[in-house]
Amino acid sequence: MNDKIKVLISAEKVDARIREIADRINEDYKGKSIHMISILKGGAYFMTELSKYISEDIPVTFDFMQVSSYGNGTESSGHIKFTKDLDESIQGRDVIIVEDIIDTGHTLFYLMDLLAERKPASVKLCTLLDKPGRRVRDVKVDYEGFRIDDLFVVGCGMDYAQKYRNLPYIGVIETE
Ligand code: IMP
Ligand code: MG
To answer: Which of 42, 66, 151, 171 could form a cystine bridge with 157, CB 3.0-4.6 A?
Structure first.
């Protein structure tokens, strides 16, 4: 059965905003390389979309990590499980963590701490969406796509029970 999904942010708006973020990153990382790390699975969509608009003069590498803080529902458990570590060392590298959405902040709070211990040259955080109203842990966001209210959204990498990650827009599941 398919859910009914209402468009919150259109595909065009998402794409335009991703280009704007890439422009800022292109300015900030002139003469450097970027080691992008996305948090599976949700962050992978945004990372590939964002990387398309990074200048060819800036070398980009990808790595992935996975932590799980959600089950199949829409409620945060508050528990973080580390299920996949990075493949490469980040020591001395300029890292950008690319995330789909920051909600309570538990995930990023834990990860930023863990990554800082591995002595990168720098770590910045880039998120497509931010739900500041739900924040429990304080995390500093360097690049942000959109701020949204306390809504459960899907699309652009985000899922509901593993579905809808492929949608090119950000949507809300309608409940009857
Ligand atoms: P946090 O640890 O509460 O900040 O949760 C972050 C993670 O929860 C995100 O990376 C998403 O995977 C998931 N999440 C939070 N809000 C939503 C939502 O509205 N839709 C889909 N996934 C979400
Ligand atoms: Mg995620």
So the answer is: 42
Tokens 């924040």 belong to 135
Rounded average pLDDT over 142-161: 96
pTM of this prediction? 0.92
Q: Which ligand does the CA of 159 lie closest to?
A: 1
* Residue 140 token pair: 């500093």
Closest atom, ligand 1, to C-alpha of 41? 12
CA angle 112, 129, 117 (to 5 degrees): 5
CA of 73 to the centre of ligand 1 (A): 11
* Cα(126)–Cα(62) distance, integer angstroms: 14
CA of 87 to the centre of ligand 1 (A): 23
Task: List the alpha helices (DSSP H) in 30-105.
Answer: 42-52
Nearest residue (CA) to ligand 1, atom 20:
153
Q: Record the tokens describing residue 45, joined without a space.
A: 């969509």
* Angle value at C-alpha 147, between 39 and 153, nearest 5 degrees: 60
Long-range contacts at 81-88 (CB < 8 A, ≥ 24 apart): 84/40, 86/37, 87/63, 88/35, 88/61, 88/63
Q: Which of 94, 100, 103, 130 is an active site residue?
A: 103
